[in-house]
Write a structure and sequence with these properties.
With 139 residues, this protein is an alpha+beta fold. Helices cover 16% and strands 47% of the residues. The chain has an eight-stranded antiparallel beta barrel. A hairpin with a 2-residue loop joins strand 8 and strand 9. The relative contact order is 0.17.
């Protein structure tokens, strides 16, 4: 009987993780493989620290580039249902923009630039402009 209960609990643990994903869609690591960029976000507790850039402290999140230290810092966020309005600056502080992040389903998000500078990330020693609308997948 104890083994049966233990097995039932072990099978339910992954389901609890999925329940957390749907209840807190804006606490996630999401990525876009086409442009090698990702968003690390926690819009609820604003507890994200950018690796190697402790000067910024705890933030709602950032957009990073794989294999690169450059990032766009999310400075403030307003969550409304399945959408969030983001204010972002590049890590040099020279450019800023406003964007929206919308949850499309359990694993798909859409980042849309609304106004301000264009999102650019380094690629092969040059700046690569990102499209106005990007899809991200949840890990």
């Amino acid at each position: 009987m104890k083994k049966l209960i233990l097995l039932a609990v072990l099978f339910m643990i992954p389901l609890l993780g999925d329940a957390q994903k749907t209840n807190e869609p804006f606490r996630a690591y999401i990525y876009n493989n086409e442009y090698d960029v990702y968003l690390r976000i926690d819009f609820y507790d604003e507890s994200i620290a950018i690796p190697g850039q402790d000067l910024y402290g705890q933030l709602p999140g950032y957009l990073g580039k794989k294999n690169n230290t450059f990032c766009w810092v999310i400075t403030s966020v307003e969550v409304s249902g399945t959408s969030a309005k983001l204010s972002m600056i590049n890590d040099y502080g020279s450019e800023d923009l406003t964007a929206t992040l919308t949850v499309k389903n359990d694993s798909l998000y859409e980042l849309k630039q609304v106004e301000g500078s264009t999102l650019k990330v380094p690629k092969n020693g040059k700046w690569q402009k990102l499209p106005k609308t990007l899809e991200f997948k949840r890990r």
